[in-house]
């Protein structure tokens, strides 16, 4: 209330006086606008390279060729500097494209998570997708470099374990610290162990200071667990076993290229892979093991039949599933190399291997690891979880309607849930998540309700509801098969580790265009579905203007419409005023509780207006020098709207 009363008084004061020599402090503590305007922040710029090109290529399809095209088109890409690349992978698809993935380098060192993909057909570079960083400054606190062996010891000291599962591996990468958004040259040390609990970690250690910059888990859990349940659904499954002497093992060696499906038991310990399940007859008396073994084969065959994918890595990797992990363990996870399932406590979950969509979810995490490798944090992490859910449903329905044997792949709203066969077994009709209606299980289904949090790696499980809803709408309109083909192509062709929701939209639309035509119903449906959940490009023409150094220049008597697009978004503008002139700033069409601030050229706050929710804001100020003044529009207490613009109109008289 004080803010609102004081703001009204302040605006009236400016409206009826010619000048003020002092200014009371605003109610809320405003950050110094120059505080983050370091040399590094001004220089760093992330560039979206989702561009059509149609450039004829000469020479080999390698780093040098693609670098040359990008560097010769710096203006098109809005780049200031030349870039360097390192080739990561290459594959050809059924449409005649060659897709080459590159990692951006800085000073010869790969930048973690900064990837682009070049899409070539008939020796013509058709498109480049992904993101790169323009102008990088490395934080360097020392001139001496930490020995690699010391970095390994520092990494090991971050954990408590009985023994390492594998020797630590180390490589040098440029890494962006998610806490301060600065870049560091780091040792990336991988640490894996089985006890006292499973661990598979990447530890990023500054090569100069030895500081631990970040610790990231490679384990992909199946959601935030509220409960567990065990056992299979009671149906009889046909299993492919391996006989050795008088014993029959849950090991399927019939798959090509010497890969196999092996199902083991941790025997209720928190260690794996454990021992292969076996019997003295051809009947396996382990319900959790039967489900895991059978469903692993179903998922393998889905990816093989639909996309000719040779296992999760497309290179024939063996599929290992461990059941009976821990005691009453209420979760399942992909650890970066295999699947692991708990038995549940019988109340919230049954055995997690007992639901095909859960098994397909975990195994799809494996496909993601070996394709886009989406960073497990914030929007890319939520997209990671969403893709696992989407393919979980698609695999389950593919099997349910017997598509492999000529059945009709049907769309049924009731199928679009995750975990319904294992979640709260005593409560029929519920599920762990719903793609048809994410709000049933406390997930948002629109960007207006996106949850900004530091929990769960930035809310990867809760915010997955938004792209999940889009996928549901797509399948509802064009069917499951086309949805599967569009999503798989986007995942394997256009997505990179840093792909966010909006870039996912672009990649999926492009995949639909590739498969079904530029003006196809399928491509239009993808765009429409993402519109429905609020994932679309802002028409804000003034970004980036989040810092005073990036302030967008405005002129008297001209209106400017823009968004406060996220809870942390800030919009800075600058205007040139002659000494003694009045600057009259009007903020109208306000969709939330937005406030207005005016700074002088030294970054000192000289005037502000803080009215209530949906109210207009106004500042009238007499200039005390000739030069630029800086206007800030910001949402109070995280207020924002990515669907409704505000209008800023300055006047000078």
What is the structure about, briefly put?
Helices cover 25% and strands 28% of the residues. It is an alpha+beta fold.
Can you describe what's shown?
This protein is of the alpha+beta class. It has five domains: 2-37 and 547-652, Sandwich (Jelly Rolls), CATH 2.60.120.380; 44-134, Nuclear Transport Factor 2, Chain: A, CATH 3.10.450; 148-218, Nuclear Transport Factor 2, Chain: A; 242-367, Elastase, domain 1 (Roll), CATH 3.10.170; 378-532, Orthogonal Bundle (Neutral Protease, domain 2). 25% of the residues lie in helices and 28% in strands. Helix 6 crosses helix 7 and helix 8 (378-400) runs parallel beside helix 10. Residues 146-215 form the PepSY domain.
Characteristic terms for this protein:
653 residues; Jelly Rolls; Nuclear Transport Factor 2, Chain: A; 5 domains; 7-stranded mixed β-sheet; 6-stranded antiparallel β-sheet; 31 strands
Please describe the topology of this protein.
Layout: H1 2-16, H2 39-43, E1 45-48, E2 51-56, H3 63-72, H4 74-77, E3 84-92, E4 97-106, E5 109-121, E6 124-134, H5 148-156, E7 169-176, E8 183-193, E9 199-206, E10 212-217, E11 220-221, E12 242-244, E13 247-249, E14 251-252, E15 261-265, E16 275-276, E17 278-279, H6 287-307, E18 319-323, E19 332-334, E20 339-341, H7 356-369, H8 378-400, E21 417-418, E22 433-434, H9 456-459, H10 465-478, H11 480-494, H12 501-516, H13 521-532, E23 552-553, E24 560-564, E25 570-577, E26 582-588, E27 594-599, E28 605-609, E29 617-622, E30 627-635, E31 641-652
Parallel strand pairs: 15-18, 18-20, 23-25
Antiparallel strand pairs: 1-6, 2-6, 3-4, 4-5, 5-6, 7-8, 8-9, 9-10, 11-19, 12-13, 13-17, 14-15, 15-16, 19-20, 21-22, 24-31, 25-30, 26-29, 26-31, 27-28, 27-30
Helix pairs in contact: 6-7, 7-8, 8-10, 8-11, 10-11, 10-13, 11-12, 12-13
Domain Peptidase C-terminal archaeal/bacterial: 569-633
Signal peptide: 1-24
GO biological process, one term: proteolysis
